[in-house]
TrEMBL record:
Pfam families documented for this protein: CHU_C (PF13585)
Domain of life: Bacteria
NCBIfam families on file: Bac_Flav_CTERM (TIGR04131)
Name assigned to this protein: Gliding motility-associated C-terminal domain-containing protein
Length: 449
């Protein structure tokens, strides 16, 4: 690890105490060494209670807060609800330029200023938390002499380190840190929110006064060179999988690199089988890199199995899918299709990622007609057998029982030939079964001689 390249990193070296808030046409550099405001915005210096008199506004004890270390820290706005964006920044020239291509670790500690009812200050208040508090490195100063901007304009820069989560903590200092590779001989560090309101997430902090502003304290800024390479934690772009697919993520497994996934596992290889948000942090020495991957799974479509129905019946095919676009081979685009004729029916759902289709074959057969409830095997040549229309189109099993439940007749493929031979007159109970149709008919028939 190298030395800290930030001069006055904890803001302890001052020119004179600041007792009131920084005004327009005034710069915080009038109170503190090395650091300055690079725009017409007005960041402020804050001090512990024993540094200032009781009538000074810049006492942190009125908020029951303290600097992270020492007796001083700086404060700035990252968001203010007003016409046009308002930002405040602090900037410093590093002790020496960064080495182009070198790996550096940077950190700062931040804390949302807590303004509660009853506190004496009316100047600075935060009822809003924001993200996008970042550290931008540049070869030349940014903001100074860049043109006729209004007060509190957004600096035209993109930070190498940026906190994307909303910073809501008002009691414990939060570390914002990362490693980066310097792609130039950076000499200046600027801290603040470099993103427009539309790109900044804000959350109202409950219990605060109704003023939409996010004001943060900054302390203990560190930039130093590290000699380990930055680990790799690139999970790639968000991905859509098809049902049944899996995705194997393999990260480079190099010496002294540790991994931690969202479920606590620590291997460089991770197998994804279901939808969700997956996150990993790779750490080597002081450098940690994190990435997330959102996986969406497009469910398959499933029609019923091939089926056989009796002629005159109907089958209603119903489809449901998040894409909500349906194409049947009949030309229909509805989610529901009524089938009443033989055929093969195909449903396709257009998808950018998966082949979503399924098929069903539907056949309609002549099923048995009305089952008689009486037959008369008396030798007159009429109604001599238990005769059922269409019973021989496909095989039907017939089983007949007497009133005692005893089986008296059975045929695996009934051919209208049961004549009740040797059986007495009386009621008999039948059961017709067909495996192909998955049907069973039950009833009774009277044998009369």
């Amino acid at each position: 690890m190298g030395q800290n390249l930030v001069p006055n990193p904890s803001f302890e070296e001052i020119k004179r105490p600041q007792c009131d808030f920084t005004r327009q046409n005034e710069n915080v550099s009038e109170y503190i060494t090395d650091w300055y405001a690079p725009t017409p915005g007005t960041p402020d210096m804050w001090s512990a209670a024993d540094i200032l008199t009781q009538n000074c506004q810049q006492r942190l004890n009125q908020f029951e807060m303290q600097p992270r270390t020492g007796t001083k820290c700086l404060g700035l706005y990252t968001y203010v609800a007003r016409t046009g964006s308002y930002r405040e920044y602090i900037q410093v020239k590093l002790r020496q330029p960064l080495k182009k291509g070198g790996t550096y670790y940077a950190e700062m500690y931040v804390l949302l200023l807590d303004r509660r009812p009853g506190n004496s200050s009316t100047e600075v208040t935060s009822n809003t938390a924001s993200n996008n508090l970042g550290m931008s490195f540049s070869a030349t100063p940014i903001g100074l002499g860049t043109g006729p901007f209004g007060i509190g304009y957004i600096l035209p820069s993109r930070p190498q380190i940026n906190e994307t989560e909303v910073l809501r903590e008002t009691r414990s200092w939060v570390k914002v840190s990362a490693c980066f590779v310097a792609d130039d001989a950076y000499t200046y560090l600027t801290i603040g929110n470099f993103y427009a309101d539309a790109q900044t997430r804000i959350e109202v902090v409950t219990g605060e006064l109704p003023r939409n502003a996010a004001y943060y304290l900054i302390d203990d800024v560190l930039v130093r060179e590290v000699f380990d390479r930055i680990p790799v934690a690139n999970l790639g772009a968000d991905t859509t999988l098809c049902a049944g697919q899996s995705l194997s993520v393999v990260l480079p497994d190099s010496l002294n690199t540790t991994f931690r996934w969202q479920d606590g596992t620590n291997r460089p290889r991770y197998l994804i089988r279901q939808a969700g948000v997956y996150a990993v942090t790779a750490t080597r020495g002081a450098c940690s890199v994190s990435d997330t991957l959102r996986i969406t799974v497009e469910p398959a479509i499933s029609l019923p199995s091939d089926t056989v129905l009796c002629r005159g019946e109907q089958l209603v095919l119903r489809a449901s899918h998040p894409l909500n676009t349906f194409q049947w081979n009949t030309g229909s685009t509805a989610s529901q299709l009524t089938v009443s004729t033989d055929g093969t029916y195909i449903l396709t759902i257009p998808s950018r990622y998966c082949r979503l289709t399924d098929t069903i074959r539907v056949d309609f057969l002549d099923c048995p007609g009305p089952v008689p409830n009486v037959f008369t095997p008396n030798g007159d040549g009429r109604n001599e057998t238990f005769y059922i229309d269409n019973i021989q189109v496909i095989p039907w099993q017939l089983t007949v029982y007497n009133r005692l439940g005893q089986r008296v007749y059975q045929s695996e493929a009934y051919a209208n030939d049961w004549d009740g031979v040797n059986l007495p007159t009386g009621l008999y109970y039948y059961r017709l079964q067909n495996a192909r149709l998955k049907r069973e008919l039950k009833g009774w028939v009277e044998l009369m001689r």
